[in-house]
Write a structure and sequence with these properties.
Elements (H helix, E strand, L loop, with lengths): L3 E6 L3 H13 L3 E5 L2 H7 L5 E6 L8 H10 L6 E5 L4 H9 L4 E4 L4 H22 L2 H9 L3 H12 L3 H8 L3 H14 L5 H10 L12 H6 L8
């Protein structure tokens, strides 16, 4: 079973150290970061992991980090831990996909329960996608043209950009995209990105920020 990781992102060094100690005391691997940018630079979407994320940090706040994760097509569970839990912030966090929002100072057991639940759900979702052999079999089932579309797709290029690269129509790219998603058994673009990273097709640190725009872009039927 793959190692489970908890990314801890907080600019308060004291709280960061205590949170890492708490997680490691129950056998979890915790990776600490004092800035959102440093975390994003190191984040590996292929891991079974979750993110403990502070809201207010210098430079790049937690909500912006969450948005950047989505922009890169990285689908890791996000748990906000913050002393600033006013309603608009909480609503925005959950609308953007946060799985929990815990106020500081937080109950240690509440925090551990939330982390364990997030990791369990992530592991179950990854398990439904199958192991390395199943992933390789799905990749091998792709046609050459589907593979041509897969790589720029997970790198974050839009359908229009892929169409220009391959010199085909946007409608045709959308058709191949749908076939790739079905063959790879991916419900969302983020799932496909995680599979590609796990298979070593792309470098998780070299993904374009336009992935979220394409994820939200629904293929449209065009008139012949």
């Amino acid at each position: 079973m793959k190692e489970q990781v908890v990314y801890v992102v907080d600019d308060d060094q004291g709280l960061l150290d205590s949170t890492v100690w708490l997680l490691e005391s129950v056998g979890l691997k915790a990776l600490p970061f004092t800035s959102g940018r440093a975390f994003l630079d190191a984040c590996d979407p292929g891991l079974t992991a979750c993110v403990l994320l502070d809201v207010r940090m210098p430079g790049m706040g937690g909500l912006n980090v969450q948005e950047e994760l989505r922009a890169r097509g990285i689908d890791l569970p996000v748990i906000f831990v913050s002393g600033h839990a006013d309603v608009p912030i909480v609503v925005r966090a959950f609308k953007s996909g946060a799985c929990d929002f815990i106020e500081k100072p937080c109950n240690e057991q509440l925090l551990l329960d939330s982390v364990q639940q997030a990791l369990r759900r992530q592991a179950e979702r990854r398990g439904r996608q199958g192991g390395p052999a199943a992933l390789r079999a799905r990749l091998d089932s792709l046609t050459p043209r589907e593979r041509d579309v897969l790589l720029p797709l997970v790198q974050g290029y839009t359908s229009r950009e892929i169409a220009e690269q391959l010199e085909i129509s946007v409608k045709t790219v959308d058709l191949y995209r749908a076939r790739v998603m079905k063959r790879m058994q991916a419900e969302r673009l983020a799932d496909l990105v995680g599979m590609a990273c796990a298979a070593g097709l792309v470098d998780p640190l070299d993904l374009r920020g336009s992935a979220s725009a394409q994820s939200a872009q629904a293929p449209q039927t065009q008139q012949a």
